[in-house]
Design goal:
Layout: E1 3-6, E2 14-15, E3 18-19, E4 24-27, E5 38-39, H1 45-48, E6 64-66, E7 74-75, E8 78-79, E9 83-88, E10 99-101
Length: 107
């Protein structure tokens, strides 16, 4: 079962460093580094409250969609890793573009 470790503290899906969204999607079609990717599922907890118990299975997120064609782990738009890490370069992300998949590996 896949899991998403999340260092984006203000994401509404983050529950103690684990993502609890129904599924996430990583974007960055022509990414060459991890910082050219983003978690398009990010929602700022300040505006969307806490959504940490929003998964269909009642647990952490286990579906990782990937639209990053240049990622080594993308297989038909699904991530093949057992777990990934989502991070941000800023202390507080405001938009999903300020997040990135730290597990990205360029082909």
């Amino acid at each position: 079962m896949s899991s998403i470790n999340c260092s984006v503290k203000n994401c509404s899906h983050n529950n103690s460093g684990v993502c609890y969204a129904n599924k996430i999607t990583v974007n960055g079609k022509r990414a060459h580094t991890s910082t050219h990717t983003c978690c398009s599922t990010f929602l700022d907890g300040e505006h969307y409250g806490t959504l940490t118990n929003n998964t269909n299975g009642g647990g952490s997120c286990s579906m990782i969609g990937c639209n990053v064609k240049t990622c080594n782990y993308n297989a038909s738009n699904v991530c093949t890793l057992d777990n990934i890490s989502v991070d941000t370069q800023s202390p507080k992300a405001n938009l999903y573009e300020e997040t990135y998949c730290a597990s990205f590996k360029n082909k």
